[in-house]
Write a structure and sequence with these properties.
Blueprint: H1 4-25, H2 29-42, E1 48-52, H3 58-66, E2 71-76, H4 79-87, E3 93-95, E4 108-114, H5 123-133, E5 134-145, H6 153-172, H7 175-187, H8 192-200, E6 204-211, E7 216-222
Parallel strand pairs: 1-2, 1-4, 2-3, 4-5
Antiparallel strand pairs: 5-7, 6-7
Helix pairs in contact: 1-4, 1-6, 2-3, 6-7
This protein binds S-adenosylmethionine.
S-adenosylmethionine (SAM) binds next to helix 1 and helix 3.
Amino acid sequence: MVDPQFVHDTFSAIASRYVAANHILSLGADILWRSRAVQIVADWHPSDLLDVATGTGDLALDIRRELPETHVLGLDFCEPMLAIARRRGLTHTLRADAMHMPFADASFDALTIAFGLRNLPNYAEALREFKRVLKSGGHLLVLDFSLPDGIAREPYRLYLHHILPHLATLLTGKRTAYAYLGQSIEQFPSGEAMLALMRGAGFICPTHLPLCGGIAAIYTAEV
Ligand SMILES: C[S@@+](CC[C@H](N)C(=O)[O-])C[C@H]1O[C@@H](n2cnc3c(N)ncnc32)[C@H](O)[C@@H]1O
């Protein structure tokens, strides 16, 4: 189970290097993954969108650029990450816990969360909280890492547990943050398991789109 205090302190410590480290460690693939997510969201034409665990605002800013008419609010519990999001131009931010959000039921047309759900202490409860704040007919999009199936799985795990932590320590000076990344990916449900979690939280029509051979995935669902 993820410890929220550890997660908070970890992201506070790496906030200033988070954006660059992300792009370097994923060889820029995270930019393509967010761009795919934005295309999906654009088809929903949301008026009010909540980006949970917005961090330094990468996905929220991309959505706002693509959908200037959409009101985009970025929520995160880590002030140093939000401060960077604001400096990068995300005008609407809120510091709050994703597990207990200060919104009335049925407040948003769409909710996005990129590389965030994996960091929450209870995935099923988090999904139920997301469903609560979405309007009837609203849409959820989850973008996160996963483990590839087949022959790519073991080489990828080798990279995740033995190479990435060293590279990340060089880039951020924080080894624990990236040792944690590997563990969190191992325990995060992917594919059919995530679709089942979404159904269990009351969402309908869940979908799964593997990215880059399954090292990341986009899930969507409706209320
Ligand atoms: C890996 S970053 C993702 C940032 C951004 N969405 C992106 O795509 O780069 C995870 C973010 O989740 C936030 N987070 C983790 N647990 C949270 C919680 N319980 N409530 C709100 N934010 C949380 C962290 O503070 C961090 O900014």
